[in-house]
Amino acid sequence: QVQLVQSGSELKKPGASVKVSCKASGYTFSTYAMNWVRQAPGQGLEWMGWINTNSGNPTYAQGFTGRFVFSLDTSVSTAYLQISSLKAEDTAVYYCARRYCSSSSCSPFDPWGQGTLVTVSS
Amino acid sequence: QSVLTQPPSVSAAPGQKVTISCSGSSSNIGNNYISWYQQLPGTAPKLLIYDNNKRPSGIPDRFSGSKSGTSATLGITGLQTGDEADYYCGTWDSSLSAEVFGGGTKLTVL
Questions:
Q1: Mean pLDDT throughout B87-104?
Q2: Residue A25, Cβ neighbours under 10 Å: how many?
Q3: Collapsing DSSP states into helix, strand and coil, what is residue A31?
Q4: Burial class (CB in 10 A: 0-12, 13-18, 19+), A87
């Protein structure tokens, strides 16, 4: 079955970096775009952007440029989210989510990874 | 401040029906498909409704979606305690070139 499995929780100090992985299985990795969504503690969902798993081209939502980097390792069907210069306000659960996009529209996010909690604290 | 507006909470008794609204604008709901996601406590969001009113395989017909103009509604009938969750609407915003979500609605089954 289609599945996205993310790496485990991380505890980092301010200023450090973190890399979250999202391993896909059950489908052809390059056929679907991979999106990233952030959920701060007790808050709603915030779309961070997506990466084209065919070309590797990333697109970042407003507010997620500079310190956030999406990347791929297509040989192991895995997408990555790297956050540098971590701040306390980066503390959140980060989700990867698959969607299919044509030239005119995109499908909904389905499925989602189980989420990775990143805690930034000194 | 979310682009899409949802009520923070709704509640109803087991067996009853509840609706959750999602209000937007012509740049999002008005011209794009809406999806609904269910987030049970401590778990990842799960697709509940897509393309305004379609249910993925495995989602019971107790869940329904509708859209009119720049607003959408999620309906849940025959409420069960297992339906207690946060519900989010989401769609593409053509002006922002971004996916946008509502702030989420917490459903309590009394």
A1: 96
A2: 12
A3: helix
A4: exposed
Separation in Å, CA of B98 to nearest CA in chain A: 7
Contact list, A46 vs chain B (CB under 8 Å):
101
pLDDT band at A103 (very low <50, low <70, confident <90, very high): confident
Give yes or no for residue A2 having a pLDDT over 90.
yes
Inter-chain touch B104–A107, beta carbons under 8 Å: no
Q: What is the pLDDT of residue B55?
A: 97
Q: Is A1 exposed, middle or buried (0-12, 13-18, 19+ CB in 10 A)?
A: exposed
B88 touches chain A (CB under 8 A): yes
pLDDT tens digit sequence for B1-45 = 899 999 999 999 999 999 999 999 999 999 999 999 999 999 999
Contact between A108 and B88 using a beta-carbon 8 Å cutoff: no
Where do we find the tokens 């012509």?
Answer: B26
Secondary structure class of B33 (helix, strand, coil): coil
Q: What angle do CA A2, A100, B82 make, to 5 degrees?
A: 55
Q: Are B4 and B90 in contact (CB under 8 A)?
A: yes
Cβ atoms within 10 Å, residue A57? 10
List pLDDT tens digits, range A11-28.
999 999 999 999 999 999
